[in-house]
Amino acid sequence: MIFGIQIWLRYCLLFITLLQVIFCSGSEITKPTHHTDDGYINNYLPKEKMSKGLATVFKWRFTRNSQTIVDFEQLEPDLPFLQSNRSEETLTWIGHSTFLWQYRGINIITDPHLSNRASPVSFAGPERLSPPALVLRDLPDLDIVVISHNHYDHLDKSTVLGIYKKQKSKPPLFLVPLGMKEWFENIGIKSGVIELDWWESHQVGNWKYHAVPVQHWSRRGLLDTNKVLWAGWVVEAPDKRLFFAGDTGYSKDFKDIGNRFKSMDLSLIPIGAYAPRWFMKDMHCSPEEAVQIHLDVNSKQSIGMHWGTFLNLTDEPLDEPPVRLQKAVQSKGLNPETFITLKHGETLKNL
Ligand code: ZN
Ligand code: ZN
Fold it and tell me: Do 130 and 308 form a contact (C-beta atoms < 8 A)?
């Protein structure tokens, strides 16, 4: 009898151990390394560098220079054409990281921001220097809205809600990094939002949308630092690949992206918000590093973004990024046409 109980107990112990092995090792194996109990981290930046101490933030705040206003040339987009276009490829720079890309009848907008400030409040925070090239009512019906992260210069509540309400009968699909769906639900967008982790993808028809790792961070409020993910996006049309780098410091992530996708036909890469380097380097690439990103992802044509739009976002002169970009492109011996900047409101056709 005792012998029987011992065998039974032994089987129980074996069963419990097996369960522990399956569940414990399973969760350790499946949990990606950029997911931590304190929030998300980057692939190639030590965790301690993810947030700046208060003293460092104050040092920047109290030693910074304010930017001198620059009167950038503003072009008027051909609105009737853009609104009815369903056949020609176009790329329009609306400002900062907001581009309208029309390809094969699909209208995609990146980080839509049409408001006057990149800020949680309407009376303070970085003010828009160059007006958006078009207003909400001018936008053609959008199919896809791609969001890189939740900083106020990339995720603008009034623009996102405006797009949603304008297209209430046929809203676009919002593609967002992991954890951001809740923000959309809270503002009343309860469906049509897909959130993806790095290297995950979502297919619509024969187009594929991939969230890819870039080096950045997230924060919207006081206690939510890095609680949701940030990402770049690769849009794979049947015969063309677009890379939207979002907001990023330079890291080995771009070599990883290049290794996975082999080449990009068109890349939108940030070239501004890099000064001072001692404060910005980890999270914002310089124009020279942007050129390295262009090379790492093997981009055929790149366009500089994230510059010349908001005043006092960072410290470099507002018109410096394109000048440094041109020099960096030349110093690498590249064709100057392969990495360019657009004027606000400029549309490229048949890229
Ligand atoms: Zn950002
Ligand atoms: Zn930004």
Answer: yes
